[in-house]
Write a structure and sequence with these properties.
40% helix, 4-stranded antiparallel beta sheet, globular, 2 domains, alpha+beta
């Protein structure tokens, strides 16, 4: 007998698109057992009411954590459809996923160069209505009014989630002549890179709302980058976001 955690970790590997044969070899669990778990996902979604799809939608619990998780999802998150209407959310932050759906287990799945965090629920598409077929930058991404209210209330959490998924803090340097001597100056800079025009706009609009000055930076003909380089704005970012580790 395998516990629920083992089943969820195994199904998370399958959710990555791997074959039953490769997952079976890695875990030592038979393909027949894995296949049977795929058809019996119902127990893994414990029937906890969804705050969004009920007849009278309720407020999101821990809205600040949701704002952060929303940023992570829009950056690198992925929702995949499974059997019997159950969806898997794959993302890179255990705590935020657990807070969003506290009654669903969260599984960590190691992969080359990273660690996926996966949780199963029928209601991930309710909590993230931006889910849809294809890549995010190939479809329109817009927040629902209730999501925008959360972002307006917790803008730094949303910014932090986006940055932790698709951002970086670097040190730029430049030289100039001072009294005949060339001196080197270093200064920090924040970058956010995303192919989706809509997601970059959400990031930029939220930066503006908290008083951060930013510019679009094109590499070649592709304006995929948002840069924060002014000293006062970098100070704000350092205070509320900081480098990611």
């Amino acid at each position: 007998m395998y516990d629920v955690g083992t089943r969820e970790r195994t199904l998370a590997l399958v959710a990555q698109g791997r074959s039953l044969n490769s997952v079976s070899k890695q875990t030592g669990i038979s393909r027949a057992a894995i296949r049977s778990w795929q058809t019996r996902l119902e127990p893994l979604d414990r029937g906890v009411p969804c705050p969004r799809c009920s007849e009278a939608p309720t407020a999101i619990e821990a809205p600040s954590s949701y704002a952060y998780l929303l940023g992570l999802y829009l950056g690198d998150g992925c929702i995949s459809a499974g059997k019997r209407g159950v969806h898997s959310l794959r993302i890179a932050c255990v705590e935020a996923v657990q807070i969003a759906r506290p009654d669903n287990k969260v599984s960590r799945v190691a992969s080359a160069g990273c660690q996926y965090v996966t949780s199963f629920s029928k209601h991930w598409p309710c909590l993230f209505p931006q889910h849809g077929p294809g890549k995010k930058h190939d479809r329109r991404i817009a927040l629902e009014p209730w999501q925008q209210q959360i972002v307006d209330s917790y803008p730094w959490e949303f910014i932090r989630g986006l940055f932790h998924s698709d951002g970086c803090r670097i040190t730029n340097w430049a030289t100039r002549m001072v009294r005949g001597e060339r001196k080197r100056y270093e200064y920090p800079r924040y970058f956010f890179t995303n192919k989706s025009d809509d997601i970059r706009k959400l990031y930029g609009d939220t930066l503006t709302a908290v008083g951060v000055e930013w510019t679009s930076l094109a590499r070649g003909s592709k304006p995929f980058n948002i840069s924060v380089a002014r000293r006062a704005s970098v100070t704000l970012m350092d205070a509320h976001v900081g480098p990611k580790y």
